[in-house]
Amino acid sequence: MTQEAVVLKVAVDAPVEGVFDYVLPVGWEGGGDALAGRRVRVPFGASVRLGVVVDAVGVPSPELKAVEALLDETPLLDADDLRLGQWLAGYYHAPLGEVLALMLPASLRGGAALCSHEMRGWRVLAGAPQEVSGAARQSQVLRQLHAAAGGVSVGDLRGMTQVLRALEQRGWVERCDLSLGVHRDACEVVADVPVTLVLNAQQMAAHTAISASLGQFAAFLLHGITGSGKTEVYLAVMTAALQRGSQVLVLVPEIALTPQLVARFASRFKPLGAEAVAVLHSGMTARARELAWQAAQSGRARVVLGTRSAVLTPMSRLGLIVVDEEHDPSYKQQEGWRYHARDLAVVRAQQRGIPVVLGSATPSLESLALVAQARYRLLRLTERAGGARSPHLALLDVRKRPLQDGLSAPLLEKMKAHLVAGGQVLLFLNRRGFAPAMECHACGHVEACRQCSAPMTVHRGRGRLVCHHCGAERAVPRVCAVCGSHEVMMQGLGTERLELALQGLFPEFALERIDRDTTRRKGELEIKLERAHSGEARILLGTQMLAKGHDFPGVTLAVILDADSGLMSSDFRAPERLLQLIVQVAGRAGRADKPGEVLIQTHQPEHPLLQALLHGGFERGAELLMRERELARLPPFAHLALLRAEAKDAARAQGFLARCATFFKDEATEALQVWGPAPAPLERRVGRYRFQLLLVGAQRAPLHRAIEKFAVAQQAWTERRGVKWSLDVDPQEMG
Ligand code: ADP
Ligand code: ZN
Ligand code: ZN
Ligand 1 within 6 A of 587 CB? Predict the structure, then answer.
């Protein structure tokens, strides 16, 4: 206990930058543990807020306010967690207090006490033998308890109650309270996880390279075609990390879409105990998240499997990070603090001095560029592990061909041939709803959202027009709102319309449509996926949901219906996404004995990207896009930051960004370009006008210096009034 009060530097959970000083009264710290990483309740302005202590320094001056409460007896965040939070706050220009709050589950963020009911366990007493001859189960438990210095939780000893009672009676073990952190220093040697398959030479080379780097920072790009056995490589290096007593963090794009993957991890590591694999994603209840968080933070969970935000989970014994499908756009947070989980994973690995593995069949251009700069090490898997052949890729030129609901006659023939031969057919269309617009044939009026500058999408099943940007709905009109004509027509093609058309064309084959509209209710997606996997559904139709992480061994024909929208988009990343999509979809079709076929319907068969893909696969396509980006000075050959502003009054949003533009132009050296302000691609949304300003830096450092100066300077600008603005560092979507 100290004799003097100390000053706490507190990151307050409020939208303000910086940390704030408070007094911790004498004798409050209770015990010798570090103060940094514990939560406090502090007076802040007119309110009381939660904060996290980031440092404890010096002797307070009399005018400082005191903290109201010190909420934890031990730190919830350790030094590494605080460092990661500080990096995120600095790089993405976010308030540290809000970032640190993001690292906590909701209840703890709200100030609740850490719930400890899961903390009961058993530990071994001095003098207990290593084993009992003739009693295998007793020996097993004794070995387990001897290996874990701090004790083993009841969860990890499930089914052993009888055995434990017997050992207790002999005075060898006792019940204990496993408070957080007891496992922290325990470096248990985990049992060998049984593995049945033998890695092939390429897998072995990857496994050896990564495993040799355990204990130091190294970033690997595991570029392996779909089915080449990337997951088996992850499992092998994870086992190596676990055997060193480390925890492993695995990030996946969307857990709901990858039940097979979760099951594979869970079953492989189940022998390590009931709590061995903790899963973290947004679909869980707050309570379940908190338990998983505790298991991760305390070190009890050996493997943490989660989506984007799991990259911020405190893990006291973290020794390896795996990012599966590293190219997936869902790793980028699109609201609030717009961090990129893959990039954060690499920073976290670097800060901790551990390896990170980024895996994909279609790596992002960013990661490929880092390989070219020798910042990441490339590991290749070029063959399908099961020996299956890669599918045949072909273009279907639909110029001048009549399309029936988006389908050409040769495509229908192909579909029929595959269906009759017993195969499944997968059709891919990235537009949900019935038709993307409703247009008057007489005057050309398009039904638009009243709050957004976008046409309403027709949802025929519900008989409604729906805005996909704000969710506004209204009835489908019978006559044109402008000229009164009855000839209002649905324009374009959505999955709902395609479903109806296909049911008419192939009534004898069961069809399953998988998009956000058909999988809203809990359990619906699982049922539909099950019908797809079992082969019960013969025609599968869906949006990009279908392209993520699923293997459909029975699919012999996969069709990309609308490649043109990816080729002609205003978003410079659209062609990269199209390339990834086609290669991913191709990788899911036709496995083992059934060779697959992939058809790309397009009006632009000569497009260089499609030609490159056709003749040189993903690599040639990626090379082409890389050259285009280099010529255009776009990422990965430049660094972007996007300032977005919106206001009820268009002039205000534009005026604010004009002021920003002037500021940055004054800052600008050769290394910084300022584009805009310009209207956002969706100019009006939910009644607010949106503008944006793009900053392009040849180097990262000058760009970030300019942004830092801006963050301070703008506080005094009157143009801020009535404007909601945000900064997106490394934007993934330009809208
Ligand atoms: P990816 O993650 O690259 O898509 P997976 O790891 O899922 O590939 O492997 C694809 C299939 O091949 C799986 O069914 C897996 O069990 C099998 N497989 C992977 N590696 C091997 C191997 N070395 N020997 C036999 N089968 C393998
Ligand atoms: Zn009209
Ligand atoms: Zn709208």
Answer: no
